[in-house]
Specification:
nucleotide-binding; alpha+beta; single chain; Alpha-Beta Plaits; nucleotide binding; Cas10-Cmr2_palm2; Rev_trsase/Diguanyl_cyclase; antiviral defense
């Protein structure tokens, strides 16, 4: 008999996004990523000092050796997606590892916590043990006490953001221990990445370095991407494998492959962006001005989270939507590991000014992604495709869905429901988003979005380009009602401005009008990375 333990880092979002300083956000993300990949491994090595008595290089192994080799006291089965599963020979070793891990986690991150659940097992039926382990993990996560590091003495200075005590002044800023740890980690990570970069761009450590021009009407964007049905796919594979050796081999292949696929998709997307940043005509045409210091230019993108199928990055606002579409297309070129089923994912994009509250923008990006995934499930009917949603941040929003119900329907109307059982999404009178990324020939997808953008703003055949002031006027008419929209479109048509594909004389409402509204709303915040 032995023990199977599962580790889950908790409070990740509040730890990473409780600040609007890019240095601290990136540093927090690196600390979260290292928590299991480095600190847990270090604890196992600290407790089990003999190398031949532990297995920590799980990604390079296929065989599960602990049940076959009595000398092995602990074996990491896998680490990924904020989780780790470790097999232990006995409870004493497991307790010592967890004790050391708690200490290391506090010393290196200050406030990160982990949930841990365990089951006793004979290592005979992995699919059954995997189910039991996850049930125990959920019980522990929602029943454990949420402890917090000590706060202030009456004589200590207090941090205005977190309430934690100030420990010192660094580069003219007062910092808590947590903020100092985050900034130190960001600096180490940035120096290492800068040394390994193939391009000459400088990695930005401030949001201002990523916008087109400081103090101008420039936007940055948070892009949040999440894989579709990943847990379900893994469960389908693991549930069929009782044998531990086969199951562990499969879960290791899946975890490593997903990490590799998403990393490559991100790297290829960044390369596409860098090719455009080297094109002066592209920069001039799209009003993108790169920040330059000592003859070197700052990059326009920096990833925050790249952990399996969970991806978040910040980027110059004009490149956000097309970068997300490129990333998704890169993912779609792969099959899910150990299957022939295509992979897909959804993205949420929140465009904001650099001074906008970052945590609020991240929540909006998350909500966009969630709405995209919901539409993908309802429309997919078992064949879930990739969708992308976006929102331009201006004021505080608690619920994006409620905001759209109140602001994106004609006066006196209600949004139309589309559902399949327990799932539903809404059709708004003048929103098409979330947008399908890759569709069939008769579907409105991202290529259609880009073509509509060209049709509106550039001369295309006999179509005159629309002046921006007319498009802004058309946008305002939507908030007055359908009749006002059609009346204005008739007036524009008499002057040679048309919306290709829209029959304004049709008495029924044309959904393509909603698609054009999306294009108009985004027209000042969009640049092609890939041409139509």
């Amino acid at each position: 008999m032995g023990y199977l333990g599962i580790y889950d880092i908790i409070g990740i979002q509040s730890y990473i996004f409780n600040t609007s300083k890019l240095k601290e956000i990136i540093g927090a993300s690196v600390l979260v990523e290292n928590a299991l990949k480095e600190l847990l491994i270090a604890s196992i090595k600290e407790v089990i000092k003999e190398e031949e008595c532990r297995v920590t290089d799980w990604s390079y192994r296929e065989d599960f050796v602990l049940p076959k080799n009595n000398n092995i006291l602990a074996e990491v089965i896998y680490i990924g997606g904020g989780n780790a599963i470790v097999a232990y020979r006995n409870k004493d070793i497991m307790k010592e590892v967890n004790k050391d891990f708690s200490k290391k986690l506090f010393e290196n991150t200050y406030s990160l916590k982990f949930a841990f659940a365990q089951i006793e097992t004979d290592f005979e039926n992995f699919s059954n043990d995997y189910k039991r382990l996850n049930i125990e993990k959920e019980k522990f996560k929602y029943s454990s006490n949420k402890t917090r590091a000590g706060l202030n003495y009456s004589i200590s200075m207090q941090d205005i953001d977190t309430g934690m005590p100030i420990i010192g002044r660094y580069n003219s800023e007062y910092l808590t221990m947590e903020k100092k740890l985050k900034r130190d980690e960001e600096l180490k990570s940035r120096i290492k990445k800068q040394q390994n970069m193939d391009s000459d761009f400088i990695i930005p450590d401030e949001f201002e370095y990523m916008i087109s021009e400081k103090y101008q009407n420039s936007y940055i964007a948070i892009v949040h991407i999440d894989g579709n049905n990943m847990g379900k796919r893994i469960e389908e594979i693991i549930s069929k494998k009782e044998d531990y050796s086969e199951a562990v081999k499969s879960i290791r292949i899946i975890s490593s492959s997903i990490e590799e696929i998403y990393q490559k998709a991100f790297n290829d997307m960044v390369k596409s962006i860098e090719d455009k940043l080297s094109d002066d005509d592209f920069l001039k045409k799209n009003g993108i001005k790169l920040t330059e210091v000592d003859g070197k230019k700052y990059h326009v993108i920096r990833n925050i989270i790249l952990n399996g199928d969970d991806v978040t990055y910040v980027i110059n606002g004009k490149l956000a939507l097309d970068s997300a579409a490129i990333f998704i297309s890169n993912i779609e070129n792969n099959s899910f590991p150990l299957t022939d089923k295509p992979m897909s994912c959804c993205a949420g994009v929140a465009l904001m000014h650099s001074h906008y509250t970052f945590s609020n923008a991240y929540k909006i990006a998350e909500q966009c992604c969630s709405l995209a995934k919901r539409k993908a499930k309802v429309k997919g009917k078992g064949n879930t495709k990739s969708y992308i949603d976006f929102h331009i941040c201006s004021g505080a929003i608690a619920s994006l869905e409620n905001h759209r119900k109140e602001n994106y329907i004609f006066p006196g109307e209600k949004p139309k429901e589309r559902d399949t059982g327990s799932l539903k999404y809404y059709l708004y009178d003048f929103l098409e988003r979330p947008w399908l990324v890759t569709g069939e020939s008769n579907e409105l997808d991202w290529k259609c979005f880009k073509k509509m953008y060209v049709d509106l703003l550039y001369k295309n055949g006999n179509n005159k380009p629309w002046p921006r002031n007319r498009l802004k006027e058309l946008q305002s008419k939507f908030h007055l009602g359908l009749e006002e929209v059609k009346e204005y479109l008739f007036e524009c048509k008499s002057r040679g401005y048309i919306l290709p594909g829209v029959d304004i004389e049709d008495t029924d409402y044309d959904r393509k009008l909603a698609a054009y509204y999306d294009v108009i709303e985004l027209m000042d915040h969009f640049a092609f990375i890939e041409e139509v």
